Amino acid sequence: MPLGLFDATNLKPKSRPPGRLALALGIGPALLVILVFFGGGLWLGALEALGKGPTGAGRLTLEHFSNVLLDPDFLRALALTLHVAGVSSLLACLLALGAALAFHRLGSRARAVAFIFQAPLAAPHLAVAVAIMFLLSPSGLLSRLGVGLGLFESAAGFPLLVNDPWFIGVIVTYVWKEVPFIALMLMAALAGSEEGLDEAAATLKAGPWQRFLHVTWPTIMPALGAAGLIVFAYAFANFETPLLLGPTWPTPLPVMSYRMWSDIDLARRPEGVALALVTGMITAALMGLAWAVFRPRAGAQGDESP
Amino acid sequence: MNRAARLAFYLAVVLAVGLPLFSLGLWSFSARWFFPSPWPSRLGLRAWEYIFSPAGSQVLGALGVSLALAGVTATLSTALGLGAGRALGAWEFRGKRLVVFAFALPLVIPPLAVTLGLHLWFLRLGLAETFLGLAAVHLVFCLPYPVFVFFGVFAGYDPAYEEQAMTLGASRRATLFGVTLRLVGPGLATAFVFSFLLSWSQYLSTLVVGGGKMATLPIALFALMNSGDRPVAAAVCLVFILPAFGCLAVAGRYLSHAPGRRARG
After folding, report:
1. Which of A15, A46, A120 is the closest to B91 by Cβ?
2. What distance in Å separates the CA atoms of residue B23 and residue A130, rounded to the nearest whole number?
3. In whole angstroms, what is the distance from residue A57 CA to residue A7 CA?
4. Of B209, B48, B27, B242, which is closest to residue A127 (Cα–Cα)?
5. CB-based contact (8 Å) between A2 and chain B?
6. What is the pLDDT of residues A200-259, one digit of tens each?
7. Is the pTM above the cut of 0.80?
8. In Å, what is the CA distance from B27 to each residue of A11, A58, B36, B157, B230?
């Protein structure tokens, strides 16, 4: 996200560290936090999911994983999570593409609007979900406006947009939140591109559509693909948005996993952890794919959704 | 783009971004609003007065917890990230790729699996449901951002600038404020603001490790959504969202002055 700060293109020749102690003091504390709390959390989670209790008692078993994966609810939840992540990342990519091209064209004239456009970047997901709830629920602002304008007879005529089986409210939340993130990545790609190419193509009598297809598209495609996959992975793993705006059943994988984990029946707890690990592995694989396919040229590695 | 298309685009952006926020504001200032009237029949400050009254003290308490937690987390995260990022950016050493990979992992693997795994251990350490335990968990998810921000800053940072300033007669103090902080300052601000924002927005990890007992602002907000008092929930949501926008304004100011850009431009 800190666009322009992670810039590996102006690398000067690297020096060796002044000594092992300096290196250890610099990297050590941060690395220790990651290894102990992140690595430790994964390790303990894996042990719990594999049947080892908190004291190390119990034998290793794949039972919890197989229980979770063979649960008919798992496939339903997986399909649902893919639907939500797929539709929201696709819509966000389309809207971001349009917005980025427009802002790139308008340049500094649109600075004030561009600032407003970026506001959703900072908004926490839960806050956005709450705002969307007040806007789209059957007694929300849009429904009231609709009834007030005579578009619907009553609230019952207003379509169900939150806690609905299609997760429309959840998708709207992700799209609202992630469009500026994708657009910023695209604008960075556009700003770094060769200005002359487009002019040269125009001089050679290429039409606007040809220029888009052969000049602009190759410039922004890697950024669009990478940002889209990051948004997909994020929507895949997010918890609080479907918890507030989704129906109570069926739920996406993260909510299902948390419900199992916090079930009154303690035997379900390791299954919840196992499902969380499976969800995590799918997300990590998607992010790995984003990196492998759309590997950015030096410059954009530090860019992540906040 | 002609004038009409431009205005239509501006209007679409402002409406799309503004409508959910406007609806929050309207709810928070509504004193009486019967369905299906499109506008509150009476506007008032009841919700806001409630937040600042003794009856609503849990909201201000949650605000305090959230501010303290995000402040402590962001300070630790920036300090640790500065050390690691500087080493990564300035030096070449064996095993560097592996270290970078370790720092990238929390960006790739979502918090759910890690926090569920940590829970039992934190219970036994006595860290569950404590401020310290929450700060530790938040720190894990914030730390990669400062590390990579400073990685970038120091990859482009040349200590020779400091030497040149001193050769030209600048004092140590002048060099620190005039050269070093000018170059590293935007990175510091960005790293802090990012960490603060991430800790501020954490819901799941706070719910799991805090066990619902450590009421940060998002935990309190979610509870209020179930209580059904919409104006109060809307006001609390605004209290939750406005500091985040403040962070963005600060980050935007510093990012536009980032040294990497000037050096390239």
Report:
1. A15
2. 10
3. 49
4. B242
5. yes
6. 888 888 888 888 888 889 889 989 998 999 999 999 999 999 999 999 989 999 999 999
7. yes
8. 52, 53, 14, 49, 7
What's the distance, Cα to Cα, between the start and end of chain B in Å? Answer: 27
**Distance separating alpha carbons of residues B124 and B140, to the nearest angstrom:** 19
CA–CA distance, A256 with A268 (Å, rounded to integer): 11
All residues of chain B having their beta carbon less than 8 Å from the beta carbon of residue A123 are: 241, 244-245
Contacts of B91 in chain A (CB under 8 A): 14-17, 23
Residues A251-284 have pLDDT tens digits of 999 999 999 999 999 889 999 999 999 999 999 9
Decide: helix, strand or coil at residue A154.
coil
Q: How many CB atoms lie within 10 A of CB A170?
A: 27
| CA-based torsion, B3, B5, B8, B14: positive or negative | negative
Instruction: Return the DSSP state at A155.
Output: G
Window 28-87 of A: residues touching B by CB (8 A cutoff) are 28-31, 33-35, 37-46, 48, 54
Model ipTM value: 0.91
**What tokens appear for B214 in the block?**
């450590």
Q: Name which of B115, B155, B160, B166 is nearest A6 in CA terms.
A: B155
Residue of A nearest to B117 (CA): A45
Residue A162, phi then psi, degrees to nearest 5: -125, 155
* Size (chain B), residues: 265
Pairwise CA distance, residues B191 & B198, whole Å = 11
Q: What whole-number distance in Å separates Cα of residue B258 and Cα of residue B198?
A: 21
Strand, coil or helix: B9: helix
- Residues of A within 8 A of B109 (CB-CB) are 42, 280, 283-284
Determine the 3-state secondary structure of B43 from DSSP.
strand
- Kindly state whether A166 is in contact with chain B, defined as any CB-CB distance less than 8 angstroms: no
